[in-house]
Every structure is written in C-alpha cells, then in structure tokens.
Amino acid sequence: MSDQVLIETVDIVLPLEKSEDDDSRRIAAAKKLGIPVKRIGGIKLRKHSIDARQRAVKVQLRLEVSLDRALPPDETPRWFAPALSPSAKPVIIVGCGPAGLFAALRCLENGLKPILLERGKDASARRFDLAPILREGRVIEESNYCFGEGGAGTFSDGKLYTRATKRGPVAKVYEVLVAHGAPEVILTDAHPHIGSNLLPNVVKAIRASIIAAGGEVRFQTKVVDFLIPEIISVASRRQREMKC
Ligand SMILES: Cc1cc2nc3c(=O)[nH]c(=O)nc-3n(C[C@H](O)[C@H](O)[C@H](O)COP(=O)(O)OP(=O)(O)OC[C@H]3O[C@@H](n4cnc5c(N)ncnc54)[C@H](O)[C@@H]3O)c2cc1C
Fold first, then answer.
1. Residue 173 in contact with ligand 1 by CB distance below 6 A
2. 63-94, pLDDT tens digit by residue?
3. What CATH number was assigned to the domain covering residues 90-218?
4. How remote is the CA of residue 160 from the centroid of ligand 1, in Å?
5. 44 φ/ψ sector (left φ>0, alpha ψ -120 to 50, else beta)
6. Where are the domains of the chain?
C-alpha cells in the first residue's frame, strides 16, 4: 500500500450555527465527494467566508480532506534567510513601510544586506507622538500617522484584503506575517485583518528578523539627497575642466 495520503479539496456551505462543528463539516464534505463519512480521515480549513446577504447567514468553507488516513500536520509558517556573507552587497532601502520591510526580507533571502533608512521613529516611540495629533491637532513632522516604523498603516486596523484584481504572492505575504506574530486565521479568512493592537508588534518582529539576519535598520534617518558615484565623477570632471 502506498504511503501517499489521498487529499481532496472540497467547497461546502453550512448554516452559521453549524459552521464550526466538525461533524457537520465531515458530513457535508462526504456528501459533496460522494463517499461514506467514515472514509474521511481528517479535515483542515483552507478558506472561510461569511455570506450574510440573506436572512439565514451561511458560511462558505473550503476544506482539505484526507481519505482513509489522517492528514499530515501543517507546519507553522516561519521566515528564515540563509546566513549573510561578510562580503554581501549592501542595498539601501528608503522607508520602513510595508514596501521597505518586505524589500529588506527579499534582499536577505537573496544574500544581499539591506540597510533601511527611516525618517520616523520606531513603532513604540512613534505611538507617543500620535497623542499631540489627537489632543492638540499638532503634527510632529517626522513622527506621525504616516512616518515611522511600519509606514502609513501601522496604527490602522490592518485590513489585509484588497479589491484590486492585480494579484501578487498574497499567500506568501500572509505566511510571513504569521511567522512574525499575526494570527493564523489570516491564512484562511476571506477578509483577513490583523488589528491595530497587534500590527505594531508584527512590524517590530519583522525588524528583529531583519537585524538578526544581518540587515540594518536606522530610524530618524531622513534621506535628503542621493550621492551617485557617476554623478559625482561627472561633477568633479566638470570642476577639473573649469579649473584648466
Ligand atoms: C490611516 C491609514 C489606514 C490604512 N489602513 C490600511 C489597511 O487597513 N489595509 C491596507 O492594506 N492599507 C491600509 N492603508 C494603506 C497602507 O498603509 C499603505 O498602502 C502602505 O503603508 C504603503 O506602504 P509603503 O511602504 O509603500 O509606503 P508607506 O507606508 O508610506 O511607507 C513609507 C515610509 O518611508 C518613510 N519615508 C518617507 N520619506 C522618507 C525619506 N526621505 N527618508 C527616509 N524615510 C522616508 C516614511 O516615514 C514611511 O515610514 C492605510 C493607510 C492609512 C494612512
């Protein structure tokens, strides 16, 4: 007999009150697959969405079902990067928002050393700088709702879904977030969201990963200009020419 577990993916719909019940899920899955319930070895939730358009609220579930045997356990998502070589090329990244943080992680995955430059403060210090906005309507120029670790949405509710049709590696992004402390439910929820209480901690955990893997994060470091070697050499050549 082969060691391979036979796994089927099945979409079912259950009334809200039965949607969390394991037996109801098994019965509905078996019916959909046209097999006896006892053949179902294990079930795992893969997608969960609520349809509240009717009076009777329904829940749509995508399940992974193993036949005759138990399902292999899921691995908890982890993020790791190969050890950085001492001669790793540095990459300067401006801004410690989601784009900058994920760019830094990608650099490390590819053996490059990211150096993140962020004009604002780290997420903990930044929280204190929001009070003057709410109390006095005074905005601290370099540390506010938009500037600082985590970028513009750090102190928002952290919705993770989009209506945009352009799709990137969404599942991979969710896994990285879970690896840094986001709740696992974001991997299955149709409208995942992290929550303003957790989001800053997830951001701080990503920073810790970047530093542990050999990257650098510099706060209160505003980029004001670029010194590009080519431009410098052209400028100095012109200067030399003018002197002659
Ligand atoms: C109140 C609010 C709520 C939001 N809620 C959500 C939500 O629930 N879900 C969602 O998906 N999106 C939400 N967004 C949008 C989301 O925050 C942005 O799409 C996202 O932050 C863009 O990421 P980014 O890295 O491109 O830019 P940003 O997040 O803007 O990050 C840019 C970073 O660069 C830094 N920076 C800028 N100039 C310099 C410089 N010269 N030198 C050094 N550093 C610099 C800034 O300080 C900032 O930290 C929200 C936005 C706001 C404002």
1. no
2. 999 999 999 888 899 999 998 999 999 999 99
3. 3.50.50.60
4. 14
5. beta
6. 6-67, 90-218
